[in-house]
Structures are given as structure tokens and as C-alpha cells.
Design goal:
Length: about 240
């Protein structure tokens, strides 16, 4: 299976495209729908079905989802509706579309794409990939192997508030921070993550990674930082790669 449909379900948007798994290239139009609010199982499954049918796809689907995912089942909710907790995401989407689904965490998917074909290719030791968007997603790799469901964004930070509510790209917008002000918060997050995990490398992905030039001077963590290659497409690509 060289060409597989990848779907990235996010807290803000749901994106889909056919992926060439050898090169990581998107080989169809990239479609996007806003994530329904509230993001309940039925409405999200309908949006996923609409994307599959608009692309006229039939075959196995790789999908990434913004919660802890164990054996295809959501174990947390974060930026999705609480009704998802305990739901078999793969079965819900398979029933809605009639296609087989493989589902993994969104940050894990983005990390897999970067480690195989992007900024992480060839990096040894412990690598943490981050997606800085609505939340802060994290993925942990040791010698290229994924250790799934790392949730660094949920570490308690300033005043006990989870870092993803203090240092995500959404927090920057909500609190109307300059890049310099936000960099202090994000650097605090990187320092804590480095203290807890001792990574050899960080790879930054997601919305804020494209603007690295605007805040790099505020980043003091010693761990080398790399910018993701696939940026906003990493989730789609890694999701497609998750299909076995
Ligand atoms: C979730 C993670 C997810 C991240 C990015 C967090 O709120 O807990 O599982 O990877 O958001 O979407």
C-alpha cells in the first residue's frame, strides 16, 4: 500500500489527503473542515465521512486524534468533547465510513512523519517532537522508536496551570502576547520538558513552529532545536504511515 488516506483530527480543524507513504508527499487535494463544536463522536464521525467521500477514497485509512489513544480507543478528551473518553475511535469511524481505520495520537503521528522522512531522520538518542497549536502535543522517540502517548503539555506549569493552557499557540492568541512575551512561557515549558526527559533533540512543529524566527532569541534551553519539515501536514502523513 503505497498510497493511503491520512486524516488529522484536530481541536480546530479536520484535514485529509491521500499520502504517498514512500516520499511523504500529499498526492491529492488537501481538504479541511472546521472541527464541529461541540466535538462529539457523532458530529466528528460525520465530518470524517464527508472528507472520505469528497476524496472518493476507498481503502484503509490512517487517522490521528488529539487525545491519548490506546488500541484505537480515546483515553482522554482535552480539546474534544468529554463524550469521547472510552470510545473506540477506530470502530466509530469504520462504522460511519465502511472503511478500516487505524488511529493513533496526533502528536505521535506528526512525530512519526518527522522521524522517518523529515527533520528527525537520522537523529539518534532521545528525540522529543512537539506540536504547538490549540494544545501542546508531544511525542517521544528513543533510537527512532516511538514511545506512545507522552503528554508533556499536561505537566503543571505556572500556578499549577497545565503548560498547554499557558504556552500553546492558542494561549498566545487568547492572552494577546507578543512573540517575545510568549517565548518566555514556551522556553519555560522546554526547560521543564528537558529537565524531566533529558532529550538529545527537540523538533518543533505545528502552527507556531513556522514563526520560529520571531521568538528564537527568547529560547534558552540547551537542547538543540530543529524545525519540522512537514509543518501542518505532518499529522496527515504520519497517520497514513501508521496503517500496517
Ligand atoms: C492532548 C494531546 C494532543 C495535543 C495536541 C493535548 O491537549 O492531550 O493528546 O496530542 O493536545 O493536539
Amino acid at each position: 500500500m503505497a498510497e493511503v488516506l491520512g486524516i488529522d483530527v484536530g481541536g480546530t480543524g479536520i484535514k485529509a489527503a491521500l499520502v504517498d507513504r514512500g516520499s511523504g508527499e500529499l498526492i491529492s487535494e488537501r481538504l479541511r473542515l472546521a472541527t464541529p463544536r461541540p466535538a462529539k463522536p457523532g458530529s466528528v464521525a460525520s465530518a470524517v465521512t464527508e472528507l472520505v467521500s469528497r476524496l472518493g477514497y476507498s481503502g484503509p485509512v490512517g487517522c490521528c486524534f488529539p487525545t491519548i489513544v490506546v488500541d484505537g480507543r480515546a483515553k482522554s478528551a482535552s480539546n474534544m468533547d468529554r463524550e469521547w473518553v472510552g470510545v473506540a475511535i477506530d470502530e466509530a469511524f469504520s462504522e460511519a465510513t465502511g472503511l478500516p481505520f487505524t488511529v493513533i495520537n496526533d502528536a505521535d503521528a506528526a512525530g512519526v512523519a518527522e522521524m522517518r522522512l523529515g527533520a528527525g531522520a537520522g537523529l539518534a538518542g532521545t528525540v522529543i517532537t512537539l506540536t504547538i497549536g490549540t494544545g501542546i502535543g508531544s511525542a517521544l522517540f528513543y533510537e527512532g522508536k516511538l514511545i506512545p502517548n507522552l503528554e508533556l503539555g499536561h505537566m503543571a506549569g505556572h500556578d499549577g496551570v497545565p503548560y498547554e493552557r499557558w504556552a500553546s499557540n492558542r494561549a498566545r492568541k487568547i492572552d494577546d502576547l507578543s512573540w517575545e512575551e510568549w517565548a518566555v512561557r514556551f522556553d519555560g515549558f522546554l526547560q521543564r520538558a528537558a529537565r524531566v526527559c533529558t532529550p538529545d533533540h527537540f523538533i518543533l512543529g505545528g502552527g507556531a513552529s513556522k514563526k520560529y524566527e520571531k521568538y528564537r532569541e527568547g529560547i534558552t534551553v540547551e537542547t538543540p532545536i530543529h524545525i519540522a519539515r512537514f509543518l501542518n501536514d505532518a499529522g496527515i502523513i504520519g497517520a497514513a504511515m501508521a496503517v500496517t
